[in-house]
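Box S2. Input/output pair 1.
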Amino acid sequence: MPAGSSNANPGTAPSTRSGKPRGVRRIAHVGAVVAMAAALAPVLAGSLPAHGTAGAPLAAPAIEAPKDAGDPLVIDDITPESVDSKSTVRVTGRITNTTDKAVKDITVRMRYSAAPLAGRAQVRAHAAGDRNTPPATGPDTTVAGPIEPGESAEYELKADAKDLGFDTYGVYPMTIEADRPSGKALGSQDSFLPYKGGGKADPVKVSWVWPLMDQPQRADDDTFLGNELDEEVGPEGRLGRLLSIGGQTGHLSLQTPEPSPPDETPASPASPSPSESPQKSADASDDDGDPTAKSSVEPPEEDRVPVTWAVDPALLEDIERISDSGYRAVADSGAESTAPATKKYAASSNARMWLRQAKGIIGDEPLIATPYADPDLAALLREGLEDDAEASIELGRQAVEETLGRTADPTVAWPSGGVMNDATHEFLHDNGAERYLLSDAAMPPERWLGHTPTAQAPIPESDESAASSAVVADSGLTSILGQSSWGPGEAALAKQRFAAETMMITAERPGEERTIVLAPPRDWDPSPELADELLKATESLPWIEPVALDDIKGAGKGGDQRRSLTYPEKTARSELGGGYLDQVKDVRGDIRLFNSVLTDHSDPFRRSVLRMESAAWRGDTPKAEQVRTIVADAVSGAKGKVRIMPGEPYQLLGESGKLPIVVANDLTEHPVRVRLSIRSENAARLEVGDLGTAEMDIAPTRKTTVYVPIESHVNGRTVLHAQVQNQEGEPLNVHEVTTPVTTSGTGTTALYITYAAAGVLLIALLPRVLRKWRRLRFKGGPRASVVPPGTPPTGSLDDDAADSGHGDAAAAAPAAEPGSAHGTADGPDPAGNGSASPADPPPAAPDDTAVQQNGSGSAEAADESDGDGEGPEPTARG
């Protein structure tokens, strides 16, 4: 056996990630790694001994271990990916001290088998560690250390393939193990060495489906379930990486170019800014803000692996929405509250750039799309929601065309989970599907089959005109693509497993033409290293040949090798439940009622309903309930904007009147047509007039006043209840608006009684009034007066003049006091006869005299009369 290299080259461990952290820049292309290694080589060469001092243990320079170091033994790279008799196998990696004490003199060795594995089942077993350790011992090396707790040291193993004894085309198992000096195992990793020498096989055709998909990001149109989407479409986000790597541009940048300062000359078209991709000139930056503009980044045509892009139209609309303007998102996307707090965010520049680049990269490449929001079609058809299923097809096609400026292939359908029952198959076929991208769980290989069947398979139909076919994705490869690749060494192991599986498929039937479809999980999140290396391997591995999905024609031999369409019981149990969909139906009922008052015939919550019905909520009850509640609240709020404005209590003075009711349409975009319904709490007291079936049209943000006739029968307080209804008389909102009405006027019966009483009183008082009038007339005749001859008249002795408002009343003589002989109008009486001087004030009226206003406006003195009105009267004497 060749001696293993004894030097352990120090270096910086590649960035790692636990889970899915955001914002950590990673090396997306192997070329960058090679460049970095080349840059470090001169530095390392001066501090390390010459390579090839076999068996001499060296002190390993300690490097800080990644925070998520995981296993103590890591394989970072295995080269070459396909081995032949002239190859030198090279394995590099790291040893991490995960104990609390320093370790040293660690032996790392390769173990392998000189016999290839017999099939894919053995490949899976070895990868899972379920097989015995390969018996043959290969090269080894010693890491002298010491390695302190938490630190790592690198190792390298090299061996010539001719010394390993491989002589047959196939996949050979390999295990790298590390032992302490005592022989106690420190760790091990299992992998593979695909050997292409010793034979030749016709390559298997491989077709990639590249998903740009995710679960619905919104509940209703205005509420996002979190703000992760802005990061996802960024240069380091999941969707940003998938677009860049899948486009195979090599130079794609999703970063928005920095504008030149006003006092600087913009870069010339021949010298693009470093922040721009080489394909994009400075002049092209003018349309960066327009998400509908075509990208100037055109992926190179040569050496490109053909991919078929797969999109969810709802995700495209979500990205477009955050690119247009500010939006609100649930503040804590991990919260399971059904009424979470939201936060306002500005429009996303990442989303604008992503959409722009997506148009240029996808271009006219093959494109398939799911129905809108990838609904659970099986559950919808089971629960009688065919209308929603139809809407998902229509809205999905519309969304793709509006966001990407092109259509997806309507003849290819990718049902959720890659499986479908007969009802789903029939529905998709009726909507234009001819080929179905399925998992092999939907059409499993026949039990007697000992190899992987080709992807093409016919779907038998009772009606020959409805015949269709399937392209079946290999679930084993889907699982490999979906495994974690962010931890230390995980990408290297996944890449090697991919090479081993595809070689084993080819080796099963070396001379048979077959095709396999690579369909990663819908929410695929590979590390940039793995995604880039897989595409390169598809081009470079000699036993596979990349083809476009459109180029997979016919059914091949799949019809004889696969079972008929199967719907797994596990999938049936995972469908959205009837109880949840009953709640969705309740929300749909409220939406129907809201839509019935809109005169523009729009359906603003149609997309929200489809998001509630997404297959993404299978097995995620808390998130499904959160989405449903947010949508239900939004619908209730929209209905509440068509409302009766509360008024003040109303006072009705009289028998009848008109009560003003103000109806408002607070919707900003939709005109409405409604009716007013109003009822009295006590119709016997207060009756509401007939409003008829008159309808009112109200423009957005406007109000109208309705005057409701009311009639009072009995005084008192009554409450009126009002509601807004649609044209069919259905109330728009459950709650009624109440208006208290108080009636204090006189009713008809009360008026009749009042008039009768007044008539009786008048008849009773009329005789007394006539007697008094005759008496006053008799006493008011001509009166005698004594005036000296030649004295001009200065006033009237009429009592009426006493309080007259005329100017001559001021000189009138006062009425004679009882007992006086007479009254005069001249000056003082020298005889002392009791007459008053004009200059003296008039005497006060006696206490028993009241001043009454007569009908003519003059005042007259009247004494307190007795029961019949008679009494002493002042008289004038002559």
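Box S3. Input/output pair 2.
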Amino acid sequence: MSRFLNAVLLILGIGAVINPLWAEEARQIAFSAPPQDWVEGNFRGYAFATPPNWQEVARSDDGVTLFGGDMETKTGPAFGLMLARNPTQVFNPETTVSLGEAVFAGGLRFEVLKSTETPDGGITVEGGFLISVDPVLGEDHLIILQTVYGQPLPPHRAVLDQILSTLDLPAPGVLPLEPALAGAFAAPVPEGWETGSYMDNEVLIFENRAVQGAFKLMRHTAAYDPGMRSDWYMPDGTLGQPVSFLGQNAVVYEWSKRSKKYHDAADSDETTRLYIFETCLANGDVASVELTGLPSFYTDPQVTGLLDRVELRLGPDAAPCPASALPVGMPAGASLAEPRVNSGLTTHLDHVAAPDTWQSQGIGGAEAAPPHTADAATADSGPLAALDGLIGYLPAEGFVTMTTPDSLTYLAEDGRGYLTIAKGAAVLAPDGFAALVPAGRLGSFEAGFSMEWSAYGWPTTQPEFLDNGAPVGGWHMVHFARSCLAGQIPVAMMFGGISRFTGGNALTQIKNNLVFNWPADIEACSLENAGVGNPATGGLAGSGVAETPTYSPDPTTVDPKRATAPAPKPPAAPPPPPAAEIEPDSFTDQGGGYALYQNARFGTTISYPSAYFNTEQSPENGDGRRFSSADGQSYFLVFGQHDAFGLPQDEMMQQDKTQQAYQGVSYEKSGKNWYVLSGLTGDTIFYRKVILAPDGIIHAFEIHYPAAQKSAFDAVVTHMAQTFGPLAAAKLAPPLVPNPQPAKITTPARNTDLRAALMDAARIPIEADLGMEVIFVVSVLRTDGAWAYLQAKPRNPDGSPIRWSKTRFAAEMEKGVMSDVVMVLLQNTSAGWQVVDHIMGPTDVYWLGWLDAYGLSEALFSE
């Protein structure tokens, strides 16, 4: 017997197994409409009706039971529906009597069983049971229960048969439509699909691991504060297009962005389409459907087949939605000048098929090391070897993988990019990678795959790649290993393509699946960088330094016994470094143990504690410097490089984060032409700041130091980050003041004009985020007169807690990834106090990033 049926018996006070025995002949079961006063019910899309005095006594995902008898005596009739994968295990086959089959009007066939059981000292139970011959939902069979407890069966036969006749069952093989969001929608849930919600009766999410996307059915409550959905969570400037969707008039809003959740072999962006229906439900609620996924999602038969059967059930009292309930400027109703587009299911646009598989394109890597033999391996054949075992690799979806004895090449089938690894002659001039580097290109330092590399990049001069079938230009990048295989055999890796490829997930995944098996007898290359001009043999540049740590802001495990050099003190100014014989860069003594370093080639400048950090030798390409402490446990890098790929700042930042060295970053911040990443691995903290100068030069500063000395380094790192940048910015920076004294920090008293001004200013962005008026329960409020910091919990004006489930942060709060705290940074301007930054629901010490970003003292934020 199932746990659900046992639960029903316990609710009714009957602790026995039912052994079927009902004298009933099999019959045809015709559908009939219920009396008007009967109550409609539904279980997993199966609709039925019961008399008005019947009560629902049990419900779960596996079944529902309604009882029409006396709850005190536990006697009377009951009706129920159950789902069971193995229905024969629900009943005792030795005492079950079969009456043949019954067939419903839709054609669904059932086996009919009967039983009678009287437990010791218990109530006699008479029952009839119908079990679907075939599964109805996945592998589950439908079981219909008709039972009478402690009373004779005949007086209740008529009502049980009438309930049975109201059961509206679909045809065999057709999934029932399950009501959703309090009846606003009805939809099937096919095998493989899962549903979930973070706001009951307002959002229902459909997901399937086999497809690259998801969709939501949404019901926007009319009682919402209009400000809560004024933007409908769509990017600014998104325009709507009138369509017909699910048989109703709607307006669709569409936008695309780089996907963080879904990935395909083409590095496609994810597209969101939000359909808002013009007709509201009877109570004024607005219905909408939101789809988000990659291009394959919108044409996947599993998606289109499911959406084919979704129904919007507006009801007879539905009415046109008022403009106040819809997005501002929504082009709806009679104002349309053009005929409405029929959206079909998921899109109002005709799907454009992908171009034919790209073949024989003379792009980057193929020209550098033409691979002649195709590798017949598949992704299921396991790791393969190339270059005489130097490389272990896996085939990649959407790529043609080719090998020669000295090369391994991945070619994107759609022509958007390539990657080639080669050794020997394929690397050297006149026919290898080295010959492809344009004259005058300067190299930079890269690290990865347990090797140091010299990297060169350059743009194409003509279309060499394909972007959605159109010939376009792009970039090439070649990395020369700084060590050679035995016998002076060079190794290099070259890749190139459009920016969507070079900064995309597919290339990162290919690299992550590569394994370099460096032999023990590798040796220094006598021909640096395979002979490329202007060799980069010791430069410091690129998108990362090998094996840099990742971060946890408050490390719990630090070895206090590990010896470290004396911690540096906050900047006051430093002695110059020892005089160098020939030194292209400049070092200016600032006094107090600090020096101002300026790179001669790129003008990158920083003030650093020279009494603590020693200067290492300048690389031959002069792109920057490495500085290390006497004990070697702390070091920092300062360098510049040309913006080889020309990526937008956000893509550059994301590309940094995909590097193995920066996986697990826990703090990031960005502004106009700069960004910061920070993290911790083991007991070492790293901090990385990148500035994109207008002249096309990228300036980078990166420091690594023991987490045990975090408090000692905080002020030092803040000072270094503030003084770091291109020469022009350094000249504009205020002069260093020895031993700066912080301004007096105060907490404004209650009922003062200052406190009121700060609260009023802070409320503006918080109320905009929440879509409601708030007051603050303040935990921290501090100001030095020029800046102010507020840490508080927002509350309703009456002091009651906010219902986060009614805000746009409902999902984050439900998942526990957000707190109920706000942090607000304000500045005193000529126009009064203004919010310059804020964060909703931080789960860590978010204001640490404001120290560097705005040059503030930690004293403003904590005592």
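Caption for Box S3: The longest strand covers residues 248-257. The longest helix spans residues 753-770.
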